[in-house]
Amino acid sequence: MPVEQTFGHTNGHTNGHTNGYTNGHTNGVSNGTNGAAKTYNISNRGHSDPDKIRVICVGAGFSGVCMAYKLQTHAVNYELVCYEKNDNVGGTWYENRYPGCACDIPAPVYSFSFEPNPSWTSYYASAPEIQKYIVNFVEKHGLSKYIQLNSRVVSAVWDEARGEYDVEVETPTGLIKDRCHVLVSASGVLNKWKWPAIPGLHDFQGPLLHSAHWDDSVDYKGKRVAVLGTGSSAIQIIPSMQPEVSHLTAFMRSPTWISPAVATDFIESGVVPTDKNTPVQTAFAKHQLTKEQIAKFEADPDEYLAIRKRIEATMNSATDVFTAGTDMNEGARKMMTEVMEKRIGDGPGHDDLKKRLIPTWPPGCRRLTPGDGYLEALVQPNVTRVFGEIVSVDAKGLTTDDGMHHDVDVIVCATGFDVAFVPPFTLKGRDDKTIQDEWEAEPVCYLGLSAPSFPNYFICLGPRGPWGNGPLLPAIETLCDYFLQAIVKIQEDQIKSLEIKLAPTVQFNDHVDEWMKTSVWKTGCRSWYKMGTVDGKAWLWPGNTLSYLKTIKQPRYEDYTIEYKNDNILGNGKTLSEITPEGRDLAPYIRNSDSPWTVY
Ligand SMILES: Cc1cc2nc3c(=O)[nH]c(=O)nc-3n(C[C@H](O)[C@H](O)[C@H](O)COP(=O)(O)OP(=O)(O)OC[C@H]3O[C@@H](n4cnc5c(N)ncnc54)[C@H](O)[C@@H]3O)c2cc1C
Ligand SMILES: NC(=O)c1ccc[n+]([C@@H]2O[C@H](COP(=O)([O-])OP(=O)(O)OC[C@H]3O[C@@H](n4cnc5c(N)ncnc54)[C@H](OP(=O)(O)O)[C@@H]3O)[C@@H](O)[C@H]2O)c1
């Protein structure tokens, strides 16, 4: 039996005003009949006095904890609960525990922009180190009071009369019911790992591993291991496992680009020399920072800031690389081809590897990965490269379309995720519409953050978000700022529902489809950006990350349909500064220069 929920954390309402009224207080126009005189009741509240609001956030990865931080830091009179299905926060970085898992963008910029970490030990921080950063962030800011672990949101249903979502959550003690005015989905896109559809896969008698569902108890050392895939996960797994296994068979049915690392100049003096006993570096060992370098970053935040800005600016100034045929993209193709050929080197079968691995489609079509040590690992004597399709798996190994059977002891599927973009819970909005039905043909999503028919519902990094366009964390932060602004507006303007209109949503998607026609993402690779297709629509942002941030920095409320609880937000003529003056400026516009001012 479902029970009423008891979770969540109420913030200390810092306004200090007497909050004894209910939202339903009468201050609107009472519509008299037959032309009778209207009554107009003035509220006893101050101007824009924020309503109490309850927010539910699904997930506690980078997005969920950022949402919690932003609300705690900038909102008042709210309740928040972040339901997280796992037994820890972290999302991607908690779940992906495969050997070599690390970020593939420079670590100095893979942290919240306002919470730098000068202590990363390597240029590509490892998953455990990133996970530690997230856990520390939660602890430092006291966010765990909002987070309910082991709790999977299974459904959310909009109640038109109340202007709330009824939310059901599976917990270890059973199904609970909760409710909220605003629902934020921070449930991740790369969060539903899936087995590849290969006949007989589960007949295999040895350990069967998936990159995003790693079993640490499996000892693969000295064993014959098959690794499936040429995506970012396989590219990190192969150089990490190859030195430790007796034989590695890499099943590579698609080519891929391996990019050089960006903006490494600042660490060159700190690169740890290659360990002579290790033939190939693991994905994150090569650019390990020295103690001296870390100490320098820790001691000099300004220098570290300058480095972070430089890396980010480098990534933000390569938009032309996303367009096929541009000088920048063709230049990248030439340079990466040369580097890949050099790194693969000469030897038996090496030319075949170059021919099969270096794509004909342009760089960037699939996610670019630096792949430290990947190409070098592929040409080691204990590695077999297999380029065909796997047609079946049996108890002892895998059979490819050339009829060859490959005996192995362990199979590692680095075969990716189910990226359908619909939320991992049933979402029912207005007029009984479910997002699962509405988005069945394709997502109908505005700026990757809201959806028509689903009022007061926000998505952190939905379809057409900047997944492949540059740095992701600034997008997550700016999205949370957007949701925060909307939440505060809902509170202060006494809004019942905020629903994105269909017209701007359609217009936005038309724009993206047109923009994508010349983009690299529409060229001939298969990618999760196109939901696993070769020629499907690309569900990415049409531009660079900076243009995404500029677009969403301020919500365009004219794109939304707004329904108010009350017509009158002016209140009793007083501002909150007058009602609760402590610590507030009652003359904010009296100043010595034309600096911004605001009335509280
Ligand atoms: C292996 C890997 C490496 C990556 N490397 C990089 C990188 O180098 N640079 C980069 O910018 N990006 C990288 N990404 C993308 C990465 O996912 C994002 O950078 C970021 O971590 C996303 O955070 P998130 O909170 O939005 O999603 P997630 O980290 O996926 O978190 C979502 C959370 O929601 C929870 N959840 C899901 N469904 C429910 C439910 N129904 N109820 C309750 N909780 C639920 C999940 O358990 C999870 O904790 C990588 C992704 C993967 C998979
Ligand atoms: N920081 C990082 O470096 C990093 C690391 C991991 C993941 N990520 C993120 O996560 C995303 C997903 O990466 P991923 O590598 O896990 O998944 P992915 O990019 O979707 O790659 C999956 C790979 O598995 C192959 N595959 C799937 N089914 C197969 C089958 N039946 N037989 C043989 N091969 C099969 C695919 O081949 P086809 O291409 O032929 O379909 C592809 O090479 C990345 O794009 C990136 O955004 C980032």
TrEMBL record:
Pfam families: FMO-like. The keyword Aminoacyl-tRNA synthetase does not apply. Keywords: FAD, Flavoprotein, Oxidoreductase. It comes from the Eukaryota. Residues 1-32 are annotated as: Disordered. The keyword Flavoprotein applies. Residues 8-28 have a biased composition (Low complexity). Gene3D superfamilies: FAD/NAD(P)-binding domain (3.50.50.60). Belongs to the FAD-binding monooxygenase family. PANTHER family: L-ORNITHINE N(5)-MONOOXYGENASE-RELATED, MONOOXYGENASE. This is Cyclohexanone monooxygenase. It comes from Sporothrix bragantina.
